[in-house]
Amino acid sequence: MAPTVVSASIGVLGPLVVKLDSLLAGEYGRLKGIRKEILALNLELSTMHAAVQKKSITKLRELLKDKRYLIIIDDIWSTQAWNNIQCAFPENNYSSRIIITTRIIDVAKSCCSSTFDRTYNIEALSDLHARELFFKRIFGSTDGCPDMLKEVSDKILNKCGGLPLAIISISALLANRCTVKEEWEKVKRSIGPALEKHQTLEGMSTILSLSYNDLPPNLKTCLLYLSVFPEDYVITRRRLVRRWIAEGFVSEERGQSQYEVAESYFYELVNKSMVQPVDISYDGKVRACRVHDMMLEIIISKSAEDNFVTVVGGGRTSLSNRHGVIRRLSIQYIDNRLALALGNEDLSHVRSLTVTASGCIKHLPSLAEFEALRVLDFEGCDGLEHVEKFFQLKYLGLKDTDISRLPSRIVMLSDLETLDFRDTYGFSRPPRGGDTRELPAGFVQLTKLQYLLAGKGTKIPSGIGNMSNLRVISNVNATRSAADALEDLGNLTYLSELIVYLDCGGSVFGSKCGGLDAYRMHEEKLFSSLHKLIGSCKLPTGNANLVLLNADLHESWSPMPSALQMFRMTTDYYFPNIPMWISPALTSLASLNINLTELTEDGLYTLGELPALLHLYLTLETGEYKIAVQGIGFPNLKHFKISSGQGTYFTFVKGAMPKLEYLQLNISLSVGRNYGFYLGLAHLPCLRRVLFQYRGATISEVISAGAAIKEEVDAHTNHLRFDITKSDHW
After folding, report:
1. Which of 54, 527, 562, 726 is the most buried (most CB within 10 A)?
2. What is the pLDDT of residues 640-676, one digit of tens each?
3. What is the 3-state secondary structure (H, E, C) of 73-103?
């Protein structure tokens, strides 16, 4: 039985508590002075609370009474929270277990009433490990600290109390200061007693607040903006950067575009440890971030003080303590009562509306109340109403929503810069009949649009060449688009990223539409435009990210697309050999995903000559044989993935792929057995993670193979992360 995780920061009965608290707060605000009514209401609600809580507890006990369970309750903040929920878990003598996490020692002790209960204190870092973390973060090594700073460093570390978060925050702050003793002394004095004697939440908050206060104004603004997202929410870099731009937080600087400046802000926050990086790609770019919950508490508090962001939900259940007009609104949880309170607010000044949970949509006031919206983000939500009425809108986020098609009046949003409707219901289904996935008529009038993040298979509109500010176009279908639209793509001089699908030749057109000849014409016009964009270096800093569903023409692609950075295939088509256009002349190609009938030694040598290649994903159609990767070529490759229908076996000789960090191979157990499952992993000095996939083998065969491979993994000096899994699709 899989463990159940309950977040105690909201509580097992969180939604009910939120409703009750909001009701009391709202009623008190409106009926101030009418004590009898409030007292009666309070008593009634307390009775309701008790009744509903008792019903929930009874239901949970009934569910668990005959089961062996493991329940993890994360982040309890009070003894009362535990007292409220502990009776919901029956003692049924089935060796069940409950694991509770808390930051407060008294709460931990209160949860251990039985002699069989145990508390486990997570120890602070030792002096040695604390110094190692501190100095590596600042100087890059443990012995890089100048002698004049060693004494003050020891005093700062004492104040951090061995807590990793405190050490990381202070070291990130010092890493951006001059290595002058007086500067470090100022930081030491600013910390105060903090965590030197007692590891308290107040002490940790002091250190985090110090890091926040040290930020320049532009980064403070960008950091405070993260309070619109809930706790533990994964925030993608690109989404955040585009929203900062739409909010007006970013200006062009010293020849850098707004997007480049905004990305530099993002990485500054990462480097200063104000946000935690999530999902680092093969090229070292951070795809997303998350805010530590303690830092989130601080920025939410400061956002409220400055009336920067108003948060509804996330443990904040009342609008009564807010001051000033609402300018940015984040709805993370809402019910009828909170909706009523929100409906009584003046929403005409709201510039930004973010909703992060589907259940909130039905409780929202009419969107007509939001007259001044610049940013509207409903990513991941369903039940949307009309969104085309906001004529000042710059950012419209509809990703992963249930809209079936874009409304026709969206063309009136003349200031729109970002439109994101990827993975929406209407564009994720296979096209049927008249479903052509066309954009509304007049869409090309949106001449300020920079980011067209479309649903998969969207037709390119005729006249798109007039949308001269476009920087990114994703998920459009070339085959289903008009030929003149494909030709127009070549006129988009600011385009930095293009994801385009090319369906199987001729099948879309049919005999009445010209069949294969019409397909060939579309193909030629598309690649003519790509040559204009790539070959003429109109994409100097971006990606030509090509997703192709047929590739007959590309074996002799000419002229050479020297600025191409990414090529990706998602198709059943296989090149018989490495195409002629893949050569060392592709000096910018960093990511290559390609299908081959088979991989020859010459083909492997050609791939190894690509100077900028960081990520290589090969899908091989045939070949149950061994390939030895030699000690030449692939000077910068970091990620290497192989998928083979018959399980080609790879080994690595000394000097092969000297910078490889991630290796994913499928295994032919029959071929691997012939070579004793030897791979040569010891010859990959930078390797960090290994993933092997297999299919069509018995459990005993897999155990035997896994044991043999693990011996080699365990012998590697980098303590590799190793996984072996079954795969049904290669």
Report:
1. 527
2. 998 876 667 788 999 999 999 999 987 677 777 777 8
3. EEEECCHHHHHHHHHHCCCCCCCCEEEEEEC
